[in-house]
């Protein structure tokens, strides 16, 4: 795409001045027959947010895990500030100034924010110093985190900020974020990008931002590496590219992006959106397939969550529910999963009332739920795919 691609594949650096914070050359990792990363070169430069873009399965996380020492490369080399290094585990990476905010959080829910931040310290704990530092960093980066909050009481967006604080407290020169926005609202993502701008701008650190979302990579980064099937397909400066060209590199063919407002091709839209009101109306039935009538729930502490909540979903419809996190969405999902006791109201399927507060009734009648955090409540990670797919017996 530009001179960077050529120079990087030949192994040389185009940067003059100090060496990049991290230079990885020909990093490779194979799992069985899958080449998760195939001779990947990447340079993370101080003062820049480097976007790593690719579809699911492109090899982005594997690449980042090799930089942080969670996955050992089969081949290839890594240098930090120009010096060759071996990164055997995250402690090695931390010593070299590399920190990572993972896609799936590693916080201890029963502990407070400051306690989580302190985890892993091997010196004597100085509570007030750590608390003060957390508050200071939180303020500095506009993260608005209270050091004394218990993590289990925090919504996901906040928990991610705690992970970020944990990294920043170790004062890393390279900060890696793997799909950080998948759990954030658009507003929270925006705030995160503002904080990252501070991280690279004022403090001259390097940030790698991994994402499969074109719009945010275009919006938040300075430089982009695009991966597909374990290999680097393209590299470019963000200012020199656009959504259509990134999408083409990412999926390997022409795609229309008119549905999301990212591009302007209306001819071959990748996703067809129902736009004409009359179009599909015949398929949408009048009566509700799923109906919630006046559902009220409370937390274990007696705090009202859903308050006389009603909705009706018809056959043939996709029904969207929008709202700022913490306004009852989780309770709604728990009610539909049969995991939450309702104190009043009814759930109806095809007009028939489902007996309330009886675990498994809704699932048995065909209500399937994909939870927000699949690791937490969707699958049992220690079991195989087929074991996870075994039908539940109620
Ligand atoms: N621990 C693992 N064992 C087996 N296969 C893996 C493992 N980790 C990743 N893979 C495979 O490697 C490929 C790249 O995965 P990943 O790096 O997670 O991609 P991305 O982060 O871009 O979605 C995928 O095909 C994935 O299934
Ligand atoms: Mg990933």
Layout of SSEs?
Layout: H1 3-9, E1 22-31, E2 34-44, E3 49-53, H2 60-68, E4 75-80, E5 83-85, H3 90-95, E6 98-101, H4 113-118, H5 127-140, H6 156-169, E7 174-178, H7 186-201, E8 206-211, H8 214-220, E9 223-228, E10 231-237, H9 243-251, E11 288-296, E12 309-314, H10 329-337, E13 344-349, E14 352-354, H11 361-364, H12 374-377, H13 385-389
Parallel strand pairs: 3-8, 3-9, 6-7, 7-8
Antiparallel strand pairs: 1-2, 1-4, 4-5, 9-10, 11-12, 11-13, 13-14
Helix pairs in contact: 5-6
Describe what this molecule looks like in 3D.
This protein is an alpha/beta fold and about 400 residues long. The chain folds into two domains: about 5-260, 3-Layer(aba) Sandwich (Rossmann fold), CATH 3.40.50; about 290-390, Rossmann fold, CATH 3.40.50. Helices cover about 30% and strands about 20% of the residues. It is built from 13 helices and 14 strands. The chain has helices at about 5-10, 60-70, 90-95, 115-120, 125-140, 155-170, 185-200, 215-220, 245-250, 330-335, 360-365, 375, 385-390; strands at about 20-30, 35-45, 50-55, 75-80, 85, 100, 175-180, 205-210, 225-230, 230-235, 290-295, 310-315, 345-350, 350-355. A six-stranded mixed β-sheet has the order 6-7-8-3-9-10, sandwiched between helices. The chain has a four-stranded antiparallel β-sheet with strand order 2-1-4-5, with helices on one face. Strands 12-11-13-14 form a four-stranded antiparallel β-sheet, with no helix packed on it. Strand 4 (about 75-80) and strand 5 form a beta hairpin. Helix 5 packs across helix 6 (about 155-170). It is globular. Mean pLDDT is about 85; it is low at about 1-15 and about 260-275. Bound molecules: adenosine-5'-diphosphate (ADP) and magnesium ion. Magnesium ion binds next to helix 2.
């Amino acid at each position: 795409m530009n001179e960077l691609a050529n120079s990087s594949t030949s192994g040389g650096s185009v940067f003059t001045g100090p060496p990049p914070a991290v230079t990885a050359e020909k990093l490779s990792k194979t799992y069985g027959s899958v080449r998760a990363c195939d001779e990947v070169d990447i340079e993370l430069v101080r003062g820049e947010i480097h976007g790593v873009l690719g579809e699911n399965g492109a090899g982005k996380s594997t690449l980042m895990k090799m930089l942080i020492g969670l996955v050992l490369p089969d081949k290839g080399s890594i240098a930090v500030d120009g010096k060759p290094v071996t990164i055997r585990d995250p402690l090695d990476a931390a010593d070299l100034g590399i920190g990572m905010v993972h896609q799936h959080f590693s916080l201890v829910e029963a502990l407070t924010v400051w306690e989580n931040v302190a985890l892993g310290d091997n010196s004597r704990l100085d509570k007030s110093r750590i608390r003060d530092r957390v508050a200071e960093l939180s303020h500095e980066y506009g993260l608005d985190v209270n050091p004394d909050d218990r993590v289990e009481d925090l919504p996901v967006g906040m928990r991610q900020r705690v992970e970020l604080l944990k990294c920043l407290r170790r004062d890393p020169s390279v900060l890696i974020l793997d799909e950080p926005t998948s759990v954030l609202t658009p507003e929270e993502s925006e705030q995160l990008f503002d904080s990252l701008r501070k991280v690279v701008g004022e403090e001259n650190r390097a940030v790698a931002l991994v994402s499969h979302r074109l719009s945010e990579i275009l919006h938040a980064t300075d430089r982009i590496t695009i991966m597909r099937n374990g290999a680097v397909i393209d590299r470019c400066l963000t200012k020199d590219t656009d959504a259509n060209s990134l999408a083409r590199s990412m999926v390997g063919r022409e795609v229309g992006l008119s549905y999301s407002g990212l591009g302007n091709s209306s001819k071959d839209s990748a996703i067809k959106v129902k736009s004409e009101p009359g179009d599909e109306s015949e398929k949408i039935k009048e009566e509700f397939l799923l109906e919630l009538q006046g559902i009220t729930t409370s937390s274990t502490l007696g705090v009202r969550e859903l308050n006389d909540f009603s909705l009706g979903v018809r056959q043939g419809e996709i029904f969207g529910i929008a709202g700022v996190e913490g306004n009852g969405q989780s309770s709604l999902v728990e009610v539909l999963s049969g995991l939450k006791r309702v104190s009043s109201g009814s759930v109806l399927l095809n007009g028939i009332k489902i007996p309330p507060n009886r675990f498994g009734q809704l699932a048995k009648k065909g209500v399937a739920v994909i939870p927000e955090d699949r690791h937490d409540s969707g699958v049992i990670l220690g079991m195989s795919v087929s074991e996870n797919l075994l039908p539940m017996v109620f």
